[in-house]
């Protein structure tokens, strides 16, 4: 897929929304790296996964993946016979529980969710190693007493020694307080040794080892010689306990290292499940009807085929979004959209491109059933105002450079989106270039959606069999666009109508009208007549539909009365 066109169509904003729904580092990374595929088989597989992920919510409403952290580094350390901390092991255990939960819920649904169940089947069981971790470490990472045969004995010996040491230190402190040589009756700890606070001038009255002094120098913190040996025994007991804990952690690390490959595979599979569920969640957020979870993905087809969007909505717009319906590649290979500025032409163009890209990325699509999206080999766009300072290109030159690149790549399996075709230069030359560009794209068989202001291109689209006109509707009474796409009619000029509505003096408006050539005025009058005829036809159809419904109601009432009479 063309990177510049992905940027023009704001596909990156979609992937950011997708990443926000992921709960795993692997899922978020997949979202960031997501690029639409040009392979029909791959797109169908991706869409099938999204459809299954949407079905998960129906089958298991309370099924949710737990958020997990990246354990790549920890698993790598274990695989290289390194040493893991208790916190590292708990992190891995948290992932293993979440992955096992996904496996246990999805694998049994292999008939309803064949693809997701197959992915979940790549997740290991991990029952034995999880049980071992949970019986060794508590939820805070503290070693449980029953983690080994030796640990309870070592901890008991440490506690007994500690209690004897503390009683003896407190006894010495009480005597020191009674003798008036202690600053206060408080036992503290320095570097793992119990000390008492003595007045500095009384230091020689108690045989002891100085471990610290106060900032003022008035107090010294000493370890009485009478408790040094007991303190040594307590330190040795603690060291034995710590060595046993380290040995247990080494054994756990070794056990995790032996299944590091299985864990790594499970991380990938869990990330794939997370990624698929995130696509489903994004589809729900956008209220996207496609794909339908229990129907075939027959709306994705091989290009070249007719592109048909039924009531498609731009996925990044909020509020009451006006949907568009458009067909490209049926009776005509290209559509030329015209209408006033801010009327929705560019939005319509971007909607088409973005929905195609989303479909080819395996994402849910905010368009109704009846939509058909070909899998294009390339989606090319030239949208907006772009200048390259580095290349010293003008706006027009930048657009031409991009369009030249598009013309070289376009073929029967490409979609080309051109915004404001022919703009940025002399109107006559711009219109001529626009005709030539459209003619070339028609000749190579590309699907085309273009917008323009040029009346000459409206006429060209009317006469060219492979092009069709469309326009965005505009209400001159309210000066507001309706954002509705009208099929088969080019847009009318609105500048003079808007100026009149805003209070422009009539002499100025009359002068402006005289500047319009007779041919262009004739075309505009013809467009006005066509739009009035179209509006009248729509009103007539509505009246006919109302009359038909009314007749059906009368017929149904008569039928019920007849049935009641017969009874």
Question: Can you describe this structure?
Answer:
- With 567 residues, this protein is of the alpha/beta class.
- The protein contains 18 helices and 14 strands.
- The chain has helices spanning 3-8, 11-20, 25-33, 40-59, 72-79, 86-106, 114-120, 127-136, 150-179, 225-258, 260-285, 345-360, 395-409, 427-444, 455-463, 495-501, 506-515, 518-566; strands at residues 188-190, 193-199, 208-213, 219-224, 300-302, 307-312, 324-328, 334-338, 373-375, 378-382, 414-418, 447-452, 467-475, 480-487.
- The strands form 4 sheets. Strands 10-11-12-8-13-14 form a 6-stranded mixed sheet, with helices on both faces.
- Helix 2 packs antiparallel against helix 3 (25-33), helix 2 (11-20) crosses helix 11 and helix 6 packs antiparallel against helix 8.
- The radius of gyration is 38 Å and the shape is elongated.
- The two termini are 69 Å apart.
- The model is unreliable at 387-392 (pLDDT under 50).
Features:
elongated; 567 residues; alpha/beta; 14 strands; 14% strand
What's a quick, concise take on this entry?
The chain is 54% helix and 14% strand. The protein is α/β, with parallel strands linked by helices and 567 residues long.
């Amino acid at each position: 897929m063309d990177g510049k066109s992905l940027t023009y169509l704001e596909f990156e904003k979609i992937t950011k929304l997708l990443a926000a729904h992921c709960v795993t580092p692997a899922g978020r990374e997949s979202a960031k790296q997501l690029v639409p595929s040009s392979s029909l088989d791959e797109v169908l597989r991706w869409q099938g996964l999204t459809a299954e992920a949407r079905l998960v919510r129906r089958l298991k409403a309370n099924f949710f993946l737990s958020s997990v952290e990246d354990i790549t580094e920890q698993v790598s350390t274990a695989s290289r016979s390194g040493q893991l901390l208790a916190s590292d092991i708990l992190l891995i255990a948290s992932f293993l529980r979440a992955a096992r939960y996904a496996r246990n819920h999805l694998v049994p649904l292999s008939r309803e969710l064949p693809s997701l169940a197959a992915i979940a089947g790549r997740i290991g069981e991990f029952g034995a190693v999880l049980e071992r971790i949970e019986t060794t470490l508590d939820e805070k990472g503290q070693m449980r007493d029953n983690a080994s045969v030796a640990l309870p004995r070592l901890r008991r010996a440490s506690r007994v020694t500690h209690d004897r040491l503390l009683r003896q230190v407190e006894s010495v402190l009480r005597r020191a307080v009674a003798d008036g040589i202690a600053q206060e009756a408080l036992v503290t700890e320095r570097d793992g040794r119990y000390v008492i606070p003595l007045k500095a001038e009384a230091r020689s009255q108690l045989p002891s080892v100085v471990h610290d002094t106060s900032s003022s120098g008035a107090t010294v913190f000493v370890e009485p010689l009478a408790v040094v040996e007991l303190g040594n025994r307590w330190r040795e007991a603690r060291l034995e306990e710590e060595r046993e804990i380290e040995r247990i952690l080494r054994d756990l690390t070794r056990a995790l290292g032996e299944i590091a490959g299985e864990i790594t595979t499970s991380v990938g599979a869990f990330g794939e499940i997370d990624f698929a569920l995130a696509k489903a969640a994004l589809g729900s957020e956008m209220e996207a009807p496609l794909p339908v979870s229990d129907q075939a993905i027959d709306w994705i087809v091989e290009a070249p085929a007719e592109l048909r969007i039924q009531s498609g909505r731009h996925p990044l717009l909020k509020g009451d979004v006006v949907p568009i319906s458009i067909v490209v590649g049926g009776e005509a290979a290209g559509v030329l959209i015209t209408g006033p500025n801010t009327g929705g032409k560019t939005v319509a163009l971007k909607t088409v491109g973005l929905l195609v890209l989303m479909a080819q990325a395996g994402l849910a699509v905010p368009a109704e059933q009846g939509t058909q999206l070909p899998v294009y080999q390339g989606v090319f766009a030239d949208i907006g105002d772009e200048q390259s300072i580095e290349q010293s290109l003008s706006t027009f030159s930048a657009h031409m450079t991009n369009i030249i690149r598009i013309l070289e790549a376009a073929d029967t399996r490409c979609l080309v989106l051109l915004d404001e075709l022919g703009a940025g230069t002399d109107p006559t030359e711009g219109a001529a270039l626009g005709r030539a560009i459209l003619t070339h794209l028609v000749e190579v068989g590309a699907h085309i959606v273009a917008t323009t202001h040029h009346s000459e291109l409206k006429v060209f689209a009317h006469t060219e069999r492979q092009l069709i006109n469309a326009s965005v509707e505009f209400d001159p009474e309210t000066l507001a666009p309706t954002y509705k796409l009208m099929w088969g009619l080019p847009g009318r000029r609105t500048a003079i109508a808007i100026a009149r509505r805003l209070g422009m003096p009539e002499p100025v408006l009359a002068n402006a009208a005289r500047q319009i050539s007779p041919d262009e005025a004739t075309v505009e009058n013809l467009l006005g007549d066509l739009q009035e005829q179209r509006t009248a036809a729509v009103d007539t159809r509505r009246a006919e539909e109302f009359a038909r419904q009314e007749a059906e109601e009368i017929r149904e009432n008569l039928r019920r009365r007849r049935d009641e009479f017969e009874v």
